[in-house]
Amino acid sequence: MTKLRRLLAIAVLFAFAPFCLASPLPADAIVFEAEDMRVDGSGAWQAKPHYPNWYASKPSKLHFLAGSYPGLGQAEQTLRLPEAGTFRLHVRYLDIIRFDHRSFQVAVSQDGRVLAEKIFDQESLRQTPEGEQRWGKGFGRFVWDNLEFTAAAGDVTVTLSKTSAEVSTGHVRQLDVFVLTRDLAYEPAVTDLYPLYVQVVMLPEQPGPVALHLFMRRSHAPYYSHANINAQGLFLGSTHGADDMPDAHLKRGQSSPWVNLSPLLTYSGSDRMSFSAITTYRGKPEPEAAFELIFSRTPDLTGLIGRPVRKGAGSGMIVAFNNTTGELVPEEDGSRQNLERARNTPEVAGARPRTFPMLTGMALTPEVSMAASWERELEALATIGLNGVGQVRPPFVDRGFTRNIASGFYFHLTRPDCKYVVDEQKLAEHMAKHRADIDFSHVLAFNMMDEPGFELEHLLNCAVCQRDFTAFLEAQQITAAFPLTDDPQAGSAFYWTMRFLIHRMTEKLRAGTLAARAAGITVPTMVNFAIEVVYSGNLVRRGADWFDVYNSGALTFGWHEDWASHSRTYQIIGYQSDVMRAACRRSGIPFGVYNVLQVHPWEIQAKAYTEIGHGNQAIHFFNYGPAYSISSDTNSDRPEIYAAIKQVAWPVGAVENHLTAAKTAPADAAQLLSVTNDIWNAKDDNVFGKERVYLNLLLRHVNVRLDVLSEDDLATELARYRTLFVSDAVVKRTAAMQILEWVKQGGTLYMTAGALEYDERRQPLDLDRDLGVSRKPFTLEEQPGRAQFEMPKLKELASVQSVPVVAGQQPPFLQRSTVGAGTVVSLGFFPGLSYVSRAGSETERPDGSIYSEVDFPAAHRALAATWAKGRLRTDHHLIEANVLTAPGADVIVLANWSGTPMTTTVTLDQAHRYAEIKAVNAEIISQTQADGALAVTLRLAAGAFLECRR
Ligand SMILES: [Zn+2]
């Protein structure tokens, strides 16, 4: 946004001059698109459409001329110069970091004589700090460069050629657009080619004189800006043009000049603009306003795009504009369209839930938007069954949006000398402000942070942390004087450094809860935890130990999110939910999840039914928007999400009386999550932690439901289970001894490669003899990497009953022993990693438009089916069943991950003699109850409930 920065600088210099009344494009400018140049027949230069990638902005007219094809070749453009002079020919192209064979040559000739030639893009213009600041960070960004020439009037030819026939990557030599001008001071910007003018017309109903404030969120960084429009024009900044120019405020019946908004816009996607009548920026918004905004590509009506009007309560209106398509969406049109989308959804069994929280974000407010607009949005969301929008304004609550999460983030409120310790004073003020601003009577939890994470690096460089570490060790009754270190080779010093990092995080979160309570905020406190436990296979790599946080009461409501980045299937939210459920078990607190909408609508549903089945007691569909408003991660412009949400929310409404009182039924087996293991593998690609994720998935695919236990849970919880799966290499010695005792008492222990080798001091546990196994040393042959990218390439090291051994091994691969009354099975490989690594897929990456069909191999399931038997079963591995127990009923929750409607038979052993079985969102074909088993055959789409009344 160089142009913007330049204009901002000008605006500061001429603080009282109106800004950008006219187009910044010089009057003599000749513009031509690179893709319109004449190419030779060699194929070395070809027009190429914009493609979704890492570059911000887009090519003008959404096309490049790409020389990213092999071979030498040329492209030409003839231009007619009306007058002689010295000219600058600017070219916009994609600058990418790192690759060779990128440069191209531009020559200008007249009457067969070359006037100028220059080789462009010999190296990235962003190699210097100045270049990076000017054009932006990142792998690819658009830049402008130019060459100068002097010519007589008449035709000139611009010839484009390559300096090399070689090609290093498909992204080099992508040219966008040329601008020719005699204005040698001109600095081009792509938005100069796409002016957008607006004129503000105050209507007769307008109460008093105002400036029109413009707050906008662009489609790429820098995201936000403020400006004001008054009778003299447009002024940049939040107060300039409003607070300092009362005489220039627009009166009833008055119009502003035409002002050009394009320097504030991107050329990329939807830029969202909130116009609001103000008298001073820091005052309250005007209670009502009446104005018209006339948008045009020209500073008159000839290029008219739209002229939205607002009247009545509220200070303004929201308008979205996409500069690449010219599409203008005022809130009135956008809200009508969204309501239409909601009304067009098919009928779904059930009702809009009243108690089970089904939320999303809806950013329109009565303070700014017209009542009709936000009323339509609320009606749309009520129609698809939502009952919370994160706002607790009376008119919203009156429309049934009573299940809300309020937010007040404080991650940044830290002491100047240590950013991992909160500033108590600022935090107290923060909480007092939120206590005063928010009516908490319709708030189910107070969200204080998003994806908190700490890094070891800070500890090592912080004097406060150094000092507090000593006190921390004393409190743990550790007498050794350990230094803070990020080196696992340092032994216990590293272990205690990681424990301190976790402690720092827990205490930072606890500070929020305590400050909220002190301010009189009594609702449960929460943060949204990120997905490390499935992404890195490491719960505590960034210091967030869910067990420590929830068991110690640092937060009182559990929350996480289902991005499942770089996984093969979003079904792993089941495992992540098992971990969250385990962390919330002891404190008995509820937990919920962000169901990320940016996936295929079938997966939105399969995720939601999986989430409910695994015990989540609130779902926030992230995020609605609306897409034309100033909010992030919006999805309201995807018509398919409305039916997807309704297919979850309405069935929930049918069984919510049970769901709100339900607990997940005891699982078939337990699975260990050793935080100590994750501490010792915090610097590695945690193969053991990743095995946990995919072993859980494999077992799920053979109908085995797992409860996760932490090391500290074993003493009280393990006795309830007959089978335990352990993948972690490092386990506290006391926990290992508890496992051994439990085996002797009759438990069955499954260990995968490398499991149970070390204690918390990373000393050998020497447990193999007691466990009756004899194992070769564990070897890690390859890092597991990410499930989407590296895991499919893992080499086959050996094979066990047609199951490939990957990543690491510890022969023998199958070894069974009897210990006391119990059994130990040592699996000297990683069955879970093998399962996901050999899962075929039709698509490389699921995005919002493609369902991620994954073809998991059968051999793994044949083997895993011998390890444990599920009490609740379906007859297809991609349909998972969970059972929730509530007073008066059991609810079987089905999630169909196959991507297509299926007929399946669900069997529940040790079932009650149910008085009534009812399917919600599915059709029962047959049912039997005999010998204590329930069998129901039904036809379902992505998810359904079976309500089994006792
Ligand atoms: Zn510090």
What do you see in this structure?
It is a single chain. This protein has 950 residues and is α+β, with helices and mostly antiparallel strands. The protein has five domains: 25-188, Jelly Rolls, CATH 2.60.120.260; 192-325; 404-664, Alpha-Beta Barrel (TIM Barrel), CATH 3.20.20; 669-864, Class I glutamine amidotransferase (GATase) domain (Rossmann fold, 3-Layer(aba) Sandwich), CATH 3.40.50; 872-949, Sandwich (Chondroitinase Ac, Chain A, domain 3), CATH 2.60.220. Helices cover 23% and strands 30% of the residues. It contains 21 helices and 50 strands. The strands form twelve sheets. Strands 32, 45, 46, 47, 48, 49 and 50 form a seven-stranded antiparallel sheet that branches. Strands 1, 3, 4, 6, 9 and 11 form a six-stranded antiparallel sheet that branches. A six-stranded antiparallel sheet has the order 15-14-13-17-21-22. Helix 18 (733-744) links the parallel strand 35 (723-726) and strand 36. Helix 13 (601-613) packs parallel to helix 14. The longest helix is centred in the middle third of the chain and has 27 residues, at 492-518. The model is unreliable at 1-18 (pLDDT under 50). Zinc ion is lined by residues 418, 420, 458, 462, 464-465.
